[in-house]
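User: Show me an example of a complex going from sequences to structure tokens.

Assistant: Sure. Here are the input components:
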Amino acid sequence: MLLEARGIVKTFGSFHAVDGADLTLAENELIGLIGPNGAGKSTFFNCLAGEARPTLGKIRFRGADVTALSSAAHAGLGLARTFQVPIVFEGMSVRENVMVGAFLRHPARRRAEEKADEVLEFTGLAAQADMLATALGTAGRKRLGIARALATEPILLLLDEALAGLTSAEMEGAIALVERIHARGITLVVVEHIMEVIHRLTRRVLVFNQGRVIAEGTPAEVTHIPAVIEAYLGRRAQGSPESRAP
Amino acid sequence: MRASLRRVLIAIAILLAIAPVLTQDAFYQRIAALVVLAAISASAWNVIGGYAGQVSFGHSVYFGIGGYAALLAFTKLGLPPIAGAPLGILASFVLSAIVGLPSFRLRGHYFSMATIAIAALAGLLVTNWGYAGGAIGLMGPATPRSPADLLFRSPLPYYAIFLVVLAILLVLTWWMERSRMGFYLRAIGSGERAAASLGVPIRRYKLYALFISGAFTALAGSLYAVMIGFIDPDSGFGILVSVNMVVMAALGGAGTLFGPLVGAIILVPLEETTNALLGGGGTGAAYVAYGVIIMLIARFSPGGLAQFLPRIAARKSPRAA
């Protein structure tokens, strides 16, 4: 087992953002994490990435307890992430942004630069390498976020809505990129809102609602589970005109 | 583009090296020495405040420690003032370790406010510390007892000493800028969350930056005390000492190698000439100009002249498709 999260609870005051969520990941899996807004996906995700410390529960990565480790330590162990709203390093070129990630395993500048160029090639950003990162559009920034994370040479990559806000052409490119990353043997967890993406990319999804995993299965299976439909669309109100309709 | 910019800056550096020799007037030679001294502390500030983006408004605390270390070494131990510089640097390391760890938990404005508080507190403590001269301050040697006292009539020897220190600091910064540390500091400065997610040990690197920054600021304080031969709570720990460093770096370009030097070349002569022209009553005039400069930078060019000048150049040349 690559990653194992058991009974994760994260509270903010009296609010239970994550309320007893479990996840197990095998090597080289590609799973989806879906759920309505506010379902606790992001918080759970932050717990996995070491950015938030779970109030309760344990996370093991390759058998080692990583629950209390910092986000930087997670990266060191090979657990990388991207952000829903990409944060680019201002005043640095696209290549330099990626080098920040590459320096983790390659302290020498020259080697970090080589690694960055290799990743830029792989992610299709080579042509923009010398541009200021802030000059990139949304799609470019998201791609840069992925490139930077890849430069840390992760075993597991957590993608937080890496495809949201893209045009359909950009989305095709991004899906192809995720597939290429997976083909490299990297395990992936993708948080997504767009069901089409989930259908195409993943074979297993976890559906989050109110801090819990309410369903698990193939994308086709979960979309037919009543609890999932209810979580997304709501329940029919008792006595509403529709429910009385013949 | 970048290479030509570098050539210009090298030219400025050479000009700076020969400037005081060209003029025989001790007034201008003194200004030149003060420019380089200010460039040292502003460049030192730049390591943590510019590259790492941790805007300290309390760096006077290091400057004061350095200045007092020099003159305490003289008044209490009878040593040449410069012998106090290593003690000042040592004290700066201790202070960085004590102050850095808790204050680095704060971000943005909260960090800046904490640094102001620390410097104000240090100023108060020294004012009430009779052993170190209290509110009156400390004096350096009146006549040189040995060459080691570094007491010269002409400002030129000071100018030369300061220039060597500045060169060491700039080479160190240049090397840092190109190495992993420089990348990590800039990443921390523009997004701590993202930097941490890439494995950057945030607090460790901030602390490294503070060690370098504080040590050179303390050294600048010692050099100031050696040249001026006097330090008191205001000239060592005053808020204006900190503001000077911030404004110079910001005007020239915070987080750039030569930005603080450029800022010092512009602002020190401005301050010295207004002081000379307006006399004692006009000491505040330069700070009125500083206020205007801060507003202009914030409004039009947060990256300082280093960002502003290339932009003007780009506007003049036809835009590439």
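The lines above are the inputs; the final block is the predicted structure for all two components together. The longest strand of chain A covers residues 15-25.
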